[in-house]
Amino acid sequence: MEWQELTPRQIVAELDKYIVGQERAKRIVAIALRNRYRRKLLPEHLRDEIAPKNILMIGPTGVGKTEIARRLARLVKAPFVKVEATKFTEVGYVGRDVDGMVRDLVDAAVRMVEQEKMAEVEYQAEELANLRLIEALGLVPAPKRRRRAPIPFPFGREIEEPSDEGDDEENARLERLRRHYLLRMKAGEFDEEEVEIEVEEQTPQLFVNVIGPQGMEQVGFDPADLLGSLFPKRKRKRRMKVKDARRILMQEEAQKLIDRDEVIREAIRRSEEDGIIFIDEIDKIAGREKGYGPDVSREGVQRDLLPIVEGSTVMTRYGPVHTHHILFIAAGAFHVTKPSDLIPELQGRFPLRVELDPLTKEDFKRILVEPENALVKQYTALLATEGVTLKFTEDAIEAIAYYAEKVNQETENIGARRLHTIMEKVLEDISFRAPELAGETIVIDAEYVKKQLEGVVKDRDLSRYIL
Q1: Is the pLDDT of residue 250 over 70?
Q2: Which fold has domain 3-115+267-355?
Q3: DSSP H or E run through 328
Q4: Which long-range contacts (CB under 8 A, 24 or more apart) does 371-379 make?
């Protein structure tokens, strides 16, 4: 089913597969997504007037704020980027400026569209890569190409050198041979053989960053593109197995087959119409400051953020990008500050506010077993690769959830992330001895969990370091 066909209820059901609880947050993002679809059905003059309603999520760390946004983006195959508000500085200070988030979004969109286009030409790229491998192995010589006469004919016409029938017969024989080896190549007969191929050298990213600081592309200048035009890509010979060479050559051939301009046009369109930018830790740039000290630029960052969120044009290496219809989801714990500490203009740009609930013991129990990527399923699958069958009893799940809630209450509350730490501690010994336990079935019960965790949880100082 295409995402456009998903109703808000179905979107929530999809999010339920990975995220436990937080029903209101899921409803809000589902409505925002459906409104995008509704907007696309409107007449053009009305469509341009309707901007997305940006969302502000308020809640402690580890309750699912980022995961909701990330899963939503995957569901709709939309360009998505997560940024942290604390990484940005006011224009004029050392650090990244807020325009960088839009450039990151376009980069993500280009990668996404490029992968889709390359998947469309995968069959052709594999055919061409296999032909190059057959020639590289010396099984068949490269096809002779007809040469053109060196002197052009008057009036712009060119004449080809005549070819005799013997050449045509030879080419037909080679073509049959080529097809024969192509079938064997596809069957994997040559996969383990060594072959020497020419591959294009990539410009080292470090070198590009040294000569061109971050953000240069905002003025239409990209050091990587400049280097590419000044120094054509060199080729160097590498020796490797046929199966590895095929992957590299397929990449090269696919790049030649796709229309780069079309990729960029589609990427910019998706960024503008479907893009989602998740701004985390927005509470860290809130607060009424005195205009001095290390946090002098916090309000400046908010003011720089304002035009992007309300709609402006940002220059990227691929061209101008309009931010009017990008969906912005901001999130923060707001322990020390509150949403009203943001500048009024920015508050008004996030009309939808949703408070996420702290996780309880019951939530932890559900998180351990219910989602498709549940932790118990992950660890069971990991140890199964070593031949160890892991089984968790109901009381073991109960105990793990109990300790996760207890440690969160007594130390820092890091939400569901605490479960990762607890699970690692519980399974530490089994993970270490897994190769020696191959073929065994190990049952994890409440007694085993208590034995592994009780000493650490009781010692509050120790639990701060270990859990």
Answers
A1: yes
A2: Rossmann fold (3.40.50)
A3: strand 327-332
A4: 371/17, 371/18, 371/19, 371/20, 372/17, 372/18, 373/18, 375/419, 375/420, 375/423, 379/423, 379/427
Under DSSP, is residue 195 helix (H, G, I), strand (E, B) or coil? strand
CA distance 349 to 328: 9
- Answer whether residue 272 shows pLDDT above 60: yes
183: Cβ contacts below 8 Å, ≥ 6 apart: none
In whole angstroms, give the CA distance from residue 415 to residue 360.
Answer: 9
Return the H-helix or E-strand segment holding 330.
Answer: strand 327-332
pLDDT in tens, 12-56: 999 999 999 899 999 999 999 899 889 889 998 888 888 889 999
Give the pLDDT band (50/70/90) at residue 405.
Answer: very high
Which of 394, 84, 150, 106 shows the shortest CA–CA distance to 274?
106
HEC sequence for 108-165: HHHHHHHHHHHHHCHHHHHHHHHHHHHHHCCCCCCCCCCCECCCCCHHHCCCECCCCH
Domain with CATH 1.10.8.60 in the chain: 361-455
Position 447 scores a pLDDT of 93
**319 and 326 in contact (C-beta within 8 Å)?**
no
| Start and end residues for every CATH 3.40.50.300 domain found in the chain | 3-115+267-355
Sign of CA dihedral 289, 295, 300, 302: negative
Quickly list DSSP for 211-250: HS-TTGGGGT--HHHHHHHHSPPPEEEEEEEHHHHHHHHH
Residues 275-301: tens digit of each pLDDT? 999 999 999 888 755 555 555 567 888
* Identity of the amino acid at 343: I
Contact 405, 361 (CB under 8 A): yes
Residues of the chain with pLDDT > 90, as a percent, come to: 46
Cα separation values, 349 from 28, 89, 228, 352, 424, Å:
16, 20, 41, 9, 41
Report which of 412, 414, 424 is spatially closest to residue 364, judged by C-alpha positions.
Answer: 414
Residue 104 pLDDT grade (very low, low, confident, very high; cuts 50, 70, 90): very high
Least Cα distance to 334 among 25, 44, 65 occurs for 65
| pTM of the complete model | 0.81
In the CATH scheme, what architecture does the domain 361-455 have? Answer: Orthogonal Bundle (1.10)
CA 106 to CA 267: how far, in whole Å? 7
DSSP state of 284: G
